[in-house]
Fold this protein.
Amino acid sequence: MSLACENGILKYLFEKDGIRINFMEVCGTHTHAIARAGIKALLPDNIRLISGPGCPVCVTAQETIDAYLTLSERDDVIIATYGDMIRVPGSERGDNLARRRALGSRVAVVYSPVDAVDIAANNPDKTVVFLGVGFETTAPGTAASIGIAKERNVHNYCVYSMLKRVEPALRALLDSPDFDISGFIVPGHVAAIIGERGFDFLASEYKKPSVITGFEPEDIMGSIYSLIKQIRSGRAELENKYERLVKKEGNIAAIDAIEKYLYVRDDVWRGFSNISKAGFGIKEEYSDFDAEKRFDIKTVLKPAPAGCLCGEIIKGRKEPLDCRLFGCICTPEDPIGPCMVSGEGACSAAFKYRSLI
Amino acid sequence: MNEIITLDYGSGGKKTASLIENMILPALDNEALDALLDGAVLPGAEKIVFSTDSFVISPIFFPGGDIGKLAVCGTVNDVAMAGGSARYLSLAFIIEEGFEIEKLKKIIDSIQNTANDAGVAVVTGDTKVVEKGKCDGIYINTSGIGVLRAPGLSPAAIKEGDKIIVSGTMGDHGTSILLSRYGYAGGEEVKSDCACLKRLAGGLYDLSGDLRVLRDPTRGGLATTLCEFVENTDLCICLDESRIPISKNVKSACEMLGLDPLYSANEGKLIAVVSPNAADRALSIIRSYPEGENAAIIGTVTKDHPGQTVLRTAFGGSRILTKLTGAQLPRIC
Amino acid sequence: MCLAVPFKIISIDGNDAVGEYEGIFRKIRVDFIKSLDIGDYVMVHAGFAIEKLDEKQALLDIEAFKELEEAFR
């Protein structure tokens, strides 16, 4: 995008709308991309970007983290995970996979669940538990890894499903009385899987301007421009600005994989407690590959750490600076809640920028 | 809960710094150590620079080098960053039983070739073997000693208006290692930049007082090193992202794995902070060496945001850089 | 949760493929991509291709940015 174009968009945005406009960027990868390009510094004061519940690190329930940390104590278990989860704290401060590894747990960082299947194949005397974190972008691959393990006769591989669905969480936010968001920057890769039709409800039911967005700074800037244009012209539509990847119906083969191996279930999200139909579990016929069944995992509901406002921050209702733990007790090196653990979560980002504001 | 050492303590970021500050310095307290330079400047008839480093890298053979080459370059470079010209090295091996002799031979050959190229001699050493499982293949420690050529190099010498120069592309080594670890083939395009900086640094010593400080941004990368320069001071470093040289392949590899090249280790590059009027001269000195061909001026020292390192992004926005908290890992988010 | 980059398909073997991204090669899974040819581009997330990059549409997107450019000249 040329400087002239960018300046033009900014000039348009800076024409005072006179009111505060909050846009929710749902997805953790958008949060990262916005921070990396330093986009917030460019926007007028009245346009705010709020990070939504789309960071799998941020919304994994504490109980789940505690459960896999306990599982990691077993000598016959290797925990395989994406790097994102290594420093996520359980309910006990400082307790995370990095610490457990130092204490002797076997923890392997992988790029793909297929790598976790490979680890299982190479370590027949151990059971590999793959932490199945993610939303609909990640769900098809995680589901398919079960089929791959089955096909390769790798029976010491299983998945601990923490997979989640974006729509129920967004509905829960939209249905709440004090939800003050004027429009959505819609996650482009979730949309690639579930299609434009997966996000129609934002505009058709809730009348919120929404734009399916890619991950380059130009994409994000272009989407903010489109959202403001919609607001100024009184429209509320779902626009697809990521047509190079997102189709109306999404990726049928990926959706089929989800439906083959997974089923929709209620789920506890950090900051939301229980959300109906917001999670994916592994179907009964694949229970051999379901860590919850194999290890009879029982999660123990624990309250969020005292004073932690992560839940409210994820909903866009409170800011990191509203949290009395922010910056003194809760810091990136010693996080209490996941919003501070995630490299560009609302709180860790605010921590970095606190002096620049 | 009992305090334990975790991997993050070795990442070169905040936890490493806290270990040094809270445990090592108070216990071993002396003037040379307290200066926390890459090499200790010691009094004597001629001032001596002395440095040590240990190498535990895995894999031990990687695109662009191996643990042996790294063991020589790492210590020679630390001496060079402190203003010294390394002459002699000590070399200590800790080897796990079962380690193949063929591999050891390759490593020793590599040490010899690199030492010759750097004009240093290994004059003393030691070898220990430990039981299977007690170390990861092979660990190496080298200590280097040389004569001080450029006194006074230190972050304390940095002044407002100074320019920040890097000697070449950033993030090559760290990115190459992570690529090897996470199963990428064809990594030949992304090689470690492992190299000796003795000659290049030597060329810069001619700048005398206009050269404020040299540092090779190893663990923690460019961003962590720059943060360390100005934290707890009234100075600020303002960087221009579009001027920071990053090779296309490193950029792509980082995008794939979710890494940041500004935080990936470099093993053959240096950062030079120089006075504004010496900046162009410093740049041409560095570029006159093959290992400095992609050198660039990437930023300025100001007083805009005391203690901070700020990046003006290629997109025109701005971003604060902080020190690396723990080792970078591949992400999905 | 959406980190993904575009790979060019170099070789295909059933649901396995080798892709190239700017000189870097990796094994990827293409279970979710119907009718794939060598030379096609796919967006890869956590080792799985999540969708084929529509080259024609990618060009159209570049056009869309160009339009914005014109609007602000």
About this structure: The radius of gyration of chain C is 14 Å. The longest strand of chain C covers residues 5-13. The mean pLDDT of chain C is 85.
